[in-house]
User: Fold this.
Amino acid sequence: MRNPQRALSIAAALLISLGLVALAYAAGGTLSVTVKGAGKALPGAVIKVRGTARFAQTAADGTARIEGLTAGDYVVRCEAKGFTAKQRKVSITDGQTTQLTCDLAAQKPAEAQEEAARNAAKAERKYAEAERMAAPAAEPEPKMALADDAAPAPRVRTRTASGKGMARRPKRKLRMAKPAAPRRGPPPRIAVDAPPPPEMNTEEYSATKEADFKSALHTPLSTFSIDVDTASYANARRFIEQQNRLPPQDAVRIEEFVNYFTYDYADPEGEHPFGIYTEVSTAPWNSERKLVHIGVQGKKVDTAALPPQNLVFLLDVSGSMNRANKLPLLKQAFRMLVDNLRPQDRVAIVVYAGAAGLVLPSTPGKQREKILDALDRLRAGGSTAGAAGIQLAYKVARENFQDGGNNRIILATDGDFNVGTSSEGDLVKLIEEKRKSGIFLTILGFGSGNYKDNKMEMLSNKGNGNAAYIDSVLEAKKVLVTEMGGTLLTIAKDVKIQVDFNPAKVKGYRLIGYENRAMADRDFRDDTKDAGELGAGHSVTVLYEIIPADSDEPLPGAGDAPASSYQKREISDAAKASPDMLTVRLRYKQPDGDTATEVAHPLPDGGVPLAKASADFRFSAAVATFAQVLRGSKYTKDVELKDVIELARGAEGNDSEGYRGGFVQLVRKAEAMMPRK
Assistant:
């Protein structure tokens, strides 16, 4: 080397720099917090370090960690819904872990109401500020300035009532100052730890039109694709419980409310991967009509018996995910799933922001710490190139495809795709092309403010998949742990239902929900038409409102069909002789097959009074009634939510997980928000 002395100097400088970097990396302490509610571990509690933008949310065991805190004294706030928040002082030391326990007391009803009022006022201020920021900036008013030629006037002393004097100048001439020149150069930088700006409400929901009654004589067939999604219920719960307001009507999909809950259907036996169950009673919102309950129960599969899994986590890490109920909650949710992986399972992680990238190649489930470390290192920032992420995720899944295994992409996002392919039409084409690969799709929605429910629903419908919304750690446990078999393992695909009504028993019928799953009757036996997927242990519940054949009531919203001048329709003798009210036909394919199998299940006419119907019937009827009220249905306009509460309370049954009890409390809260009639 020409200059050995210079080389030694550079090497020394590099060593010093590396030492400083290592010292900086080692600096800082860790805060480990355990939150309890009335003495029990409290998951989903939020930990905030006052004076910083650092926060965390407790896991299922009630613990959370915040690392890299600068040494010093802090005030830590622990808060959880339904409990009184608590603040504690802590001292952080470099290189050490400080332990803190917060035991929160349950709020009294009055305290809960006061907190709800404060949150509502805070939300109103937030939305008002967001609207103000979104509004076009007004032209600045010209500033007033002193005239240059106005000479200072001598001070004049005046005397106040107290006798003390104060100096004052006479008024000067005023002139208009020139407006300031516009700022040049890049905008000011925002600190990394700065809290995100207020969120504008740009959530999107697809409009759906409520189905009217149809004549069983003129249109006896009702055909639709099954739907096992549950996202709408959890999302509506977020509006009511967290934002203290009713959800938008288009955010309510009745079938997803009903299918959120499990029902006590027997595990099916025989050659088919599901069983069909039916029941008839009185419609709770109209005693002159009947309600038909159809249940489809998929076979349950023990988690240990699941086939090997080839999973690709497709995670949105764009800037819009930089909120407590988005990326931090997402990471906690996926930690739960990773904790339940088996050695034969494999996981890859693909992320997307301004571009897509592979942050973890396909890794065996036994290397749990490696997978968790890749999750922990995720940070949010940038725009949202969702389509590029989808392309890469399918490529990785295909490269690691397991024959006979469960090959699935789990997409977690707020649905806000804004770079590259982002229109619904283009995304549909992309997903329809990719579903031919034999790779299934699960979509998990997170967050609020810019949540794109319309895109999430569309992707799950078109991509051989299912969709859920994660609004809390408990919901993450429900979807990814308790119901993992149904979420991740498909036992039947392209599942269609066609109900054939007997006009001798039924004058008119109305399918409750499933508006965006309707199919043409001719598509039922067209095996090229895509339909919904049924997961292991999943159940699908369908409700029809029936006007009996002997009723004098005209068909609401439709009226009796006009008589044809060329063709006469009459009820056949065979229909009159049949004891059946309807026949349920179900058509499906095996997960890796292309040939469909058809099953038929007749339902005899009859029924029992509502009070004697099964708990499952009464509870599903209560849920459907509540969802219709939220949607502003014309068929439930006279319903009072206190009656829904009473019906649901009497049908809670064996509610070991507390979901039915939670529904009752949700309706109570919604009742308080309803406008007076």
The chain has a mean pLDDT of 82. The first strand starts at residue 29 and ends at 37. The CA atoms of residues 435 and 463 lie 5 Å apart.
